[in-house]
């Protein structure tokens, strides 16, 4: 691929159109050159890898405007693309997105014991040569935690001078979307970060957070009786709510207080452990509206499949995340979820890691005697040896995956002209769960992003819809889209439709969910080849973090997973290392103490001089 992150990636509008075209054509990349087979020895065999990505299906896109008027329109600020045969270190990361971004005011997670700095003045490892853009953190543009933890500051990015003029009309055309296509950062997978989730903890611990900034999700919404309404979830929201009667406020606070320490009161729920969470809520003297809010907007669980204990755990997780960085439990990375894998690549590049774009792999080379994988052969006919190999599921051929049964995720991405719930502030990040129309069908998670998230142009909203698949993505999600939005392209629409946001453009697609597949189900994989999955359908990122840590610990059981990086002043370089670095080659720094076995086998070691026993 010519982009980072696989199915976790984000695209500009033109980039997404190219991705759509590529997945609708589904052409095989046949390899006519067989010279690489000469590299295989007699005592070796090969495991061929898939040449075709089959993780995306049923891609359908729709334009609800005059598409012909945009035929000759070019994306503003487009840069000529240079061929990338292999990108290494900081140079490789610099090429990851080719997007034109305004200077950012950073809001970075810090270790919880540290105070936020007023200005970091640091430059990302991915900065291009000659690019002096600095990432700074300004107190006046940050939203920090209400609990005084200061573990994460939330950035508000000021509009660049080239933003669309306020004098332009509110009506947005397709040609405007194409022209401002670089303002869009459209995620293939839609997720939010729980403020006390595993990914936030990992970003802070590993200091990868220095390369990203975040915005707090501002609203939790509910869809009830055909209307969208805001859900009060924090104590302040509950008592300031006008939609709840005083009695309901007391009921809700009493139940939420119980959920925070439900383990201490087993007598209150143990009789309902075999019941669903929805049935348990009916026994708690809660009104139907409160039951709806708790089930679909706070616990965000299924009405039919979720047990009482699972529902209580989900509610407690939601409540524990409140107040850390704002009035909701969720954060969203500016410029999209696709920034997260790039942030880890930047940190990797600082310590000598290499990430190659547009660099395909032909096969795994396996030793017949030991059964272990020895090397890979790339499309240049180059043989690369290693001790461990990590393969994303989509690269495995059908012969290896004969026993694997995959789930699917239904996805839709919409560009709309207004919010699903208009308020005084246009800059809202909202999450809405739409209950299923029929029992047994999955609920649909809707995430609406405003332009201050740097994912869409001014006067538009980017809306992501996600649910586990039962049919094609369009069949699963279009009924929900019709409930919430106006799809009518004609000028004459009913008054009810006029009140709804208008969809300007939409795409539907199904994505493979390979999470939860046991490694033993893959036929004939050597023991030192590890498989990681693509994105799962859950709202958070816990599955990916657990999987990464599990694979790492299997390879290096005595090593710490994503340890805090050393400060630059603590790194000691060998005199022998300095000369090659000055000549333009980047080598990993070395340390005075002897490196571990795993570090030695990886071809280089990172040295940290610990002055004061800091971890």
UniProtKB/TrEMBL annotation:
Residues 90-141, 560-615 are annotated as: Disordered. GO terms for biological process: intracellular protein transport; small GTPase-mediated signal transduction; vesicle-mediated transport. InterPro entries: FAD/NAD-bd_sf (IPR036188), GDP_dissociation_inhibitor (IPR018203), Rab_escort (IPR001738), RAE1_2_domI_C (IPR054420). One of its GO terms (molecular function) is GDP-dissociation inhibitor activity. Residues 571-580 have a biased composition (Acidic residues). This is Rab proteins geranylgeranyltransferase component A 2. It comes from Eudyptes chrysocome. GO terms for cellular component: cytosol; nucleus; Rab-protein geranylgeranyltransferase complex. It comes from the Eukaryota. Pfam families: RAE1_2_domI_C (PF22603). It is found in: Cytoplasm, Cytosol. SUPFAM superfamilies: FAD-linked reductases, C-terminal domain, FAD/NAD(P)-binding domain. Residues 409-537 form the RAE1/2 domain. Keywords: Cytoplasm, GTPase activation.
């Amino acid at each position: 691929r010519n982009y980072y992150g696989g199915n976790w990636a984000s695209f500009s509008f033109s980039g997404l159109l190219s991705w759509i075209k590529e997945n609708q054509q589904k052409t095989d990349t046949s390899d006519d050159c067989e010279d690489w087979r000469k590299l295989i020895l007699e005592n070796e065999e090969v495991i061929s890898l898939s040449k075709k990505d089959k993780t995306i299906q049923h891609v359908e896109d729709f334009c609800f405007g005059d598409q012909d008027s945009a035929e000759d329109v070019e994306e503003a600020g487009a840069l000529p693309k240079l061929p990338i045969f292999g990108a290494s270190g900081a140079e490789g990361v610099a090429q990851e997105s080719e997007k034109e971004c305004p200077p950012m005011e950073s809001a970075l997670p810090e270790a919880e014991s540290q105070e936020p700095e007023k200005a970091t003045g640091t430059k990302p490892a991915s900065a291009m040569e000659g690019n002096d853009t600095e990432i700074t953190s300004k107190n006046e543009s940050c939203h920090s935690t209400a609990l005084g933890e200061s573990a994460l500051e939330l950035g508000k990015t000021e509009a660049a001078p080239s933003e669309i003029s306020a004098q332009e009309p509110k009506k947005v055309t397709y040609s405007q979307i194409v022209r401002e296509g670089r303002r869009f950062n459209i995620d293939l997978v839609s997720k939010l970060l729980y403020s006390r989730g595993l990914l936030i903890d990992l970003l802070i611990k590993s200091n990868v957070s220095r390369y990203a900034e975040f915005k707090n999700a501002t609203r939790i919404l509910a869809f009830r009786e055909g209307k969208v309404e805001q859900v009060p979830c924090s104590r302040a929201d509950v008592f300031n709510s006008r939609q709840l009667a005083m009695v309901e406020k007391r009921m809700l606070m009493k139940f939420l207080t119980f959920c925070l320490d439900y383990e201490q009161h087993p007598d209150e729920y143990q009789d309902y452990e075999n019941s669903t969470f929805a049935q348990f809520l009916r026994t708690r003297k809660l009104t139907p509206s409160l039951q709806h809010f708790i089930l679909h907007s706070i616990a965000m669980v299924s009405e039919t499949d979720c047990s009482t204990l699972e529902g209580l755990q989900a509610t407690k997780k939601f409540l524990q995340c409140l107040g850390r960085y704002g009035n909701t439990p969720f954060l969203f990375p500016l410029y999209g979820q696709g920034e997260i894998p790039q942030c880890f690549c930047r940190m990797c590049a600082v310590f000598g890691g290499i990430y190659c774009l547009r660099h395909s792999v032909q096969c795994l080379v396996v030793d017949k005697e030991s059964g272990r994988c020895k090397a890979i052969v790339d499309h240049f006919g180059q043989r690369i040896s290693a001790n461990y190999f990590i393969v994303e599921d989509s690269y495995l051929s059908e012969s290896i995956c004969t026993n694997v049964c995959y789930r699917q995720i239904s996805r839709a991405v919409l560009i709309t002209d207004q919010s699903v719930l208009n308020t005084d502030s246009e800059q809202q990040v909202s999450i809405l769960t739409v209950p299923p129309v029929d029992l047994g069908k999955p609920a649909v998670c809707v995430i609406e992003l405003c332009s201050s998230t740097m994912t869409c142009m001014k006067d538009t909203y980017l809306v992501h819809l996600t649910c586990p698949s039962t049919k094609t993505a369009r069949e699963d999600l279009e009924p929900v889209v019709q409930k919430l939005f106006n799809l009518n392209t004609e000028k004459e629409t009913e008054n009810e439709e006029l009140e709804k946001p208008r969809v300007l453009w939409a795409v539907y697609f199904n994505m493979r969910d390979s999470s939860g597949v046991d490694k033993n189900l893959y036929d004939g994989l050597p023991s030192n080849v590890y498989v990681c999955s693509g994105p799962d359908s859950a709202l958070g990122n816990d599955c990916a973090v657990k999987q990464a840590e599990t694979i790492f610990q299997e390879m290096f059981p005595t090593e710490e997973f994503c340890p805090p990086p050393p400060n630059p002043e603590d790194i000691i370089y060998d005199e022998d290392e300095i000369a090659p670095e000055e000549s333009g080659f980047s080598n990993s720094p070395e340390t005075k103490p002897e490196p571990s076995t795993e570090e030695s086998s990886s071809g280089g070691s990172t040295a940290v001089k610990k002055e004061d026993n800091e971890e």
